Predict the structure of NitT/TauT family transport system substrate-binding protein.
Amino acid sequence: MKKVIISIVFIFIVGVLAACGTSGGSTSKDDERTITLGYFPNINHVPAMVAKSEGIYKEKVGDNVTIEYKTFPDGASFMTALKTGEIEAGLVGPGPAMNNYTTGTDVKILAGGSTGGTVTVARKDSGIESIEDLKGKTFITPRVGCTHDVQFETFMKEHGITSERTGGEMVHTTGKPAQYQAMFESGKVDVAVAPEPWGSVLQMETGAKVIVAPDEVSFGETLPASVLVTSGDMIKNDKELIQQIVEAHKEAITFINENEEKAKDITIADIKENTGQELSKEVIDSAWNNIGFSYDVSAEEVQAFGDSSYELKFLKEQPDFSNLIDTQFID
């Protein structure tokens, strides 16, 4: 009798160990699992909103995979989530992806998401009428060294004006884009480097003036304003899933370009859900004019952007992004 009991216990233990041993690798089509995808509540991230709303991610990955979504106010929090495994993939600005890559983060850019959308506006009563008036003024971006920050400071450096961080006169602060309107109305900041639709919100709701347009700011028309990223470990262990996510991303971008009005409705609803702010159709129409949607990504432009980040002292060492981009899933 004792031999029978020992045999049963042994078989049970072996079965448990075998089950535990499969958790770190790729998952078969019959296994149930949950993945989380991240994005920001702004127009540069509409591909994620559309893929979510239209069920495109779900269609591509299959019924055995449950998809959850998480939104982020800035690239730093997104990249922390990617590093800790809180999310498996998602859309983020290229700046945070590059910055984290240089410090050893396991991140890979899979595709572009959008272009443009960085608007620099001055508060109505700030006294700012031109670029030259920005000396000594306070400007706000979502985060130090974020994509919009690098674009703006690169542009200003070319005009001989820099921030206090590099010995200049402009004062820099940071905050969530959805809060910029309140900061303008309180007079706490003079200039906002805002991702759309928040740039259009400031223009329409506060009378803010555009100082640097999206097609004028550095890298405004050439660098992806958002990129689809994952980890190298995910590519290694679950290549099929990553291919499915990229295919959904590409299909979402096609949907946006072919169904503009429907995509705008999805954007309004998603931003309201995640920020509590219901943007008008007029704001979305204005913002839409400042942005494009494409999954293309140029390694040369990414490297040029990184070089500028280094020159502005956002990066401590000259970056090499030759292994940051993995386009095998869109080619």
